[in-house]
Structures are given as structure tokens and as C-alpha cells.
Amino acid sequence: MVAAQSSMANALTIKRKASVERLTYDLHKTVGVYFGGLLIVIMLTGIALIFSTQTQAIVTLFSPIKMPSHKMKFQSVLIVGGKPLGVDAVVNIVNQLYPNGTLQSVILPKTATDVYRVGKLADNEVNQTFTKRVVTIDQYSGKILEVRDPGQFSGGETFISWLYPLHSGEAFGFVGRLIWCLAGIAPLVLYVTGIMRWLQKRRAKKRIANE
Questions:
Q1: Is residue 14 pLDDT above 80, yes or no?
Q2: Is there a single domain that holds both residue 102 and residue 27?
Q3: Residue 26 contacts residue 15 (beta carbons within 8 Å)
Q4: Is residue 137 in some structural domain?
Q5: Residue 155: CB partners within 8 Å, gap ≥ 6?
Q6: Does one domain contain both 127 and 200?
Q7: If you average pLDDT over each of 13-17, 19-23, 117-121, 193-197, which comes out highest?
Q8: Is 5 part of any domain?
Q9: CATH code of the domain in which 111 resides
Q10: What is the C-alpha separation between 52 and 164, in angstroms, rounded?
Q11: Are 88 and 72 in contact (CB under 8 A)?
Q12: Which of 100, 124, 151 is the last residue of a domain?
């Protein structure tokens, strides 16, 4: 058992004082083993994000997904002669609903019957770049028309919200982003070391043939 573990450890390490051929082989093999699974995750999540409509259609077969808040036709009740609430008042409404978190976005009404949409990032949200916690508010009365809260998401909505953080490494903080950055370099390393190994084997075959 110990010998098998030692053999496995040796197979997944780079021997620094070995020949150029062995170093090239070790680098190609080790990078492929350590980053192969991660590259598959990045590839699959990238495909899912690019084909988001198709992805959501498939996920909906297993768990319900609401239409994005900005695509829903919420309207403010027009008050003739009424004055719309200011941004500060609207943000205060959201702060009362969610005291904790970071204000990330305020989308202003574009028409007399449009609504406010306020995004306030929760501290524990997996997606730190684009908050999924959005509150839709009537621009006149301040009435809350809809609340999107990741804590109340269905399984399908949670799955969709994880795609970008997994693709970018954001789900695992700074360390995750750093590892994902290295994974982005891995294909180049595999490509270069793969060509080098092919050339090395080709030269070896020619030497054998000429002997």
C-alpha cells in the first residue's frame, strides 16, 4: 500500500534534476492531471453561459426558474401631479428590508410608469460581481412590487446563479481566481509540452533508425 502511494506521488510530481525529455514529460503529465478536471468545469460552465436560453430551458425541466426581474413588466401606479421618490428614499426602503449587505446598483425609472430596481449584494452571495438580490419598487408610493432573494431561490435558480462564479473562480474568493488564472495558462503549457514531446520522440526514432 505504501509502495503504491509512493508510486502515485512520484507520478504526479516533476523531477527537477531529470533530463529535458523527462522534465517535459513530467510537466505535461502533471499539469494535465492537476488542471484537467478544472478545465472541464470551466468549459462546461462557459458553454452553459453562452447558450443561456437553452441552459435555462433544460434546467426548467427539473426545477422552476422565474423570468429575470428586468424582463418582467412591472409598472408604477401613475399619480397625476405626484412627484416620484428620490433615490435616497428608495435606497432607504431597501435598507430597511435588508439592513446588511452592499448597495450595488440602482436602476432608475425611464418613463412615468417605470419602476426602480435596486440591487443590494448579500455578504454570503456566491456571485459577488452581479448581485441576484434585487428589489423592484413603485417610483411614487415606494411599494415593494417584487423581491428576488438568493436565499429563497429554487434549485434551478441556484444552479443558474452558480454558473458565472464557477466559471470565473469567484465562488472561491481570491484563491479561487488565482487558481482559475493558472488553469487558463494550462492549455498553453499542455500544447507546448505536447509538441516538445512529439519532437523529442521523433528525433529519438530517427537516431534509432540511423544506428
A1: no
A2: no
A3: yes
A4: yes
A5: 62, 63
A6: no
A7: 117-121
A8: no
A9: 3.10.450
A10: 11
A11: no
A12: 151
Same domain membership, residue 188 and residue 139: no
Q: What is the 3-state secondary structure (H, E, C) of the chain?
A: CHHHHHHHHHHCCCCCCCCHHHHHHHHHHHHHHHHHHHHHHHHHHHHHHHCHHHHHHHHHCCCCCCCCHHHCCCCCCCCCCCCCCCHHHHHHHHHHHCCCCEEEEEECCCCCCCEEEEEEECCCCCCCCCCCCEEEEECCCCCEEEEECHHHCCHHHHHHHHHHHHHHCHHHHHHHHHHHHHHHHHHHHHHHHHHHHHHHHHHHHHHHHHC
Find, among 167, 75, 161, the residue nearest to 113 by Cα. 75
- pLDDT tens per residue across span 115-167: 999 999 998 899 888 899 999 999 999 999 999 999 999 999 999 999 999 99
Q: Judge whether 203 lies within some domain.
A: yes
* Residues 124 and 159 occupy one common structural domain: no
Radius of gyration of the chain (CA): 27
Q: What are phi and psi of 134, to 5 degrees?
A: -125, 135
CA–CA separation, 101 and 133 (whole Å): 10
Cell representation of residue 148: 428576488
Does 137 share its domain with 164? no
Parent domain of 82:
67-151
